[in-house]
Amino acid sequence: MGTATLSIDLGALIANWRALDTRSTTETAAVVKADAYGLGADRVGRALARAGARTFFVAAAEEGAALRRAMGPGPVINVFSGHMRGDTDMIGDMALTPMTNSFDQLVRHIEALPGHPFGIQLDTGMNRLGMEASEWAAVRDIALQQNPTVIMSHLACADEPDHTMNAQQLTTFHEMTEGINAPRSLANTGGILMGADYHFDLTRPGIGLYGGLPFADGTPVASLSVPVIQCRDLDEGETVGYGNAFTATRPTRIATIAAGYADGVIRAMGHDAQLYADDIACPIAGRISMDMIGVDITDLDDPNPKALDLLGPRQGIDTLAEAAGTIGYEILTSLGARYNRRYVGG
Amino acid sequence: MGTATLSIDLGALIANWRALDTRSTTETAAVVKADAYGLGADRVGRALARAGARTFFVAAAEEGAALRRAMGPGPVINVFSGHMRGDTDMIGDMALTPMTNSFDQLVRHIEALPGHPFGIQLDTGMNRLGMEASEWAAVRDIALQQNPTVIMSHLACADEPDHTMNAQQLTTFHEMTEGINAPRSLANTGGILMGADYHFDLTRPGIGLYGGLPFADGTPVASLSVPVIQCRDLDEGETVGYGNAFTATRPTRIATIAAGYADGVIRAMGHDAQLYADDIACPIAGRISMDMIGVDITDLDDPNPKALDLLGPRQGIDTLAEAAGTIGYEILTSLGARYNRRYVGG
């Protein structure tokens, strides 16, 4: 067992979806792009469908096709990147719904798959995806005649509820969709937490489902236990790892554990992150290497722990993200392919 | 085609292996752990075997089992993490050779699989894996009676040839293996470049095969082209992406491309990295998000490029690593699962 175990708590996932569904005044979808933020879109999708989710969002048509194979017919699968060149067969055969982002995409879709469901993505100021006001004004009548399933936009600053950008995007979304009968969608997790004004007809939580901020009341979903390969005692002055980056300042016991940056343990967190043996923190000693990490276990009673926890009750994705100078989202999506994935609950 | 294309040049890979083989005074193995540094251990392994490599190294038994399935019988597959609890069946059934790291592992191996090949890993100062001098002195005679296939250690500072640690580890390795007939191995890529004193009976290049430093004469192996989802014009003062992190200081054209940190485009590189349209650099605009990046393409002649290059002739893994505050190794191993992988050459 030279590989670590990533446990994914489907019960916690479902609890998070239900909690966000309770706060939504409308239908609650689920964003499962990037392989459900690294946790497995097939298992996550099926668990949320059992819990009552009927609408799912992915980033690319390829992801949508894989999700359709896992979930079967029934759930709506919306594709954020829309109808790109080369996507027509996948969208048609796998019953995907592209969120068309531009006049070009809209024309491509209507010409290639007349009558096939599609949505429309509007840009309300993030300048990333979606039609701008002028483009939308020009195509709006034609587009609406084709009965889009949803008209959506995305918030750029929803993780900061006090940011003026939120109200500004809300106003723009109202202006761009006034008098339209098609269902509308604006809120990601942060948007749900900002209240009913942002909910419209469909909310789209992502990070909150997986136990990450800004949903502070969420339950952690991922935990990660890394096996110890071997332990050794160091004299004061001895060094550990590449570049001799750690020097023992006391008699020190080091555990070498079997995960590294190739497993998504972001190398930048080496200075500040810790592993846990139950409640006791053990700092990383030296640089994180590709497949291994040295950990200072001097303060443990057990001189030969079998495994140490990187994600668990004492250290969640957002704490680890802080050590790596990033956000919980990247901690999750970096989780690597070498782990044994164990699904519990649900 | 909402996903990017990662091209892997097997011809360049083979050329790098041959160049390092020419510099090695002895047999040259190939390190293909972490899925061949993210590039696909099955294809990389088979290409290098055709080129003449007979010995391969992986990190964990699970990787070794997958590699054996891909390569068939014949090549030697050595496992750095040794013979861990639960590994016996895989090691036995898939004909893997564990590099035993401790007395415990050695005993486990000899008792569970008597007569099955194994190597020995010694610690010469890195304090990460391998037996220490005192442990080795105690088991040396018993271990050697069992005919280990290789006795190895690993250099902590080989990327810095002037570091005094290198000569120190070389001396320790000599002291620990004096008078032993078994084949010996010490050199990774950096060790090969430091000259014949470090080569012993088997060299083990890893990063150098994949076109990374410290092998400055290597040929790049990976290139990455990311499709553009859509382009838009911004007025001065408009913002882009999460947190409004980019503000246009001139009339600006932005391309939104279909890759993000979920694809291993490390989020930390957002401030300093660039995409390329042939020879023209286009800076990243705003934060890298999970599945998308905004790119400032104002200076391009073509207002609607179909794709932009993140890795290519103008920007290799080490340049990109600098932008992300890390090393080329992590750029490679972070390459995500969503890419279309295209193998060329070889």
Describe the model:
2 copies of one chain form a homodimer. By secondary structure, the first copy, chain A, is α/β, with parallel strands linked by helices. Chain A folds into 2 domains: 201 residues, TIM Barrel (Alpha-Beta Barrel); 123 residues, Lyase, Ornithine Decarboxylase, Chain A, domain 1. Helix content of chain A is 30%, strand content 22%. Chain A has 11 helices and 19 strands. The first copy, chain A, has a 7-stranded parallel beta sheet. In chain A, helix 1 crosses helix 3, helix 3 crosses helix 4 and helix 10 crosses helix 11. Chain A is elongated and about 75 Å long. The two termini of chain A are 26 Å apart. The model of chain A has no long low-confidence stretch (mean pLDDT 96).
How is this fold's topology laid out?
2 copies of one chain form a homodimer.
Chain A (H helix, E strand, L loop, with lengths): L4 E5 H14 L3 E2 L1 E2 L1 H5 L3 H11 L3 E4 L2 H11 L4 E4 L8 H6 L3 E4 L2 H10 L6 E3 L11 H13 L5 E2 L11 H14 L6 E2 L3 H5 L8 E2 L18 E13 L4 E2 L5 E2 L4 E6 L16 E4 L2 E4 L9 E4 L10 E5 L5 H8 L3 H7 L5 E5 L2
Parallel strand pairs in A: 1-19, 2-10, 3-4, 4-5, 5-6, 6-7, 7-8, 8-9
Antiparallel strand pairs in A: 1-11, 11-14, 11-18, 12-13, 14-17, 15-16
Helix pairs in contact in A: 1-3, 3-4, 10-11
Give the low-confidence spans of chain A: none
Number of helices of chain A: 11
**Biggest chain pair contact, residues each?**
A-B, 75 and 74 residues
Mean pLDDT figure of chain A: 96
Estimate the global geometry of chain A from the Cα principal axes. Answer: elongated
User: What's the CATH first level of the largest domain in chain A?
Assistant: Alpha Beta
Derived structural class of chain A: alpha/beta
What's the number of domains of chain A? 2
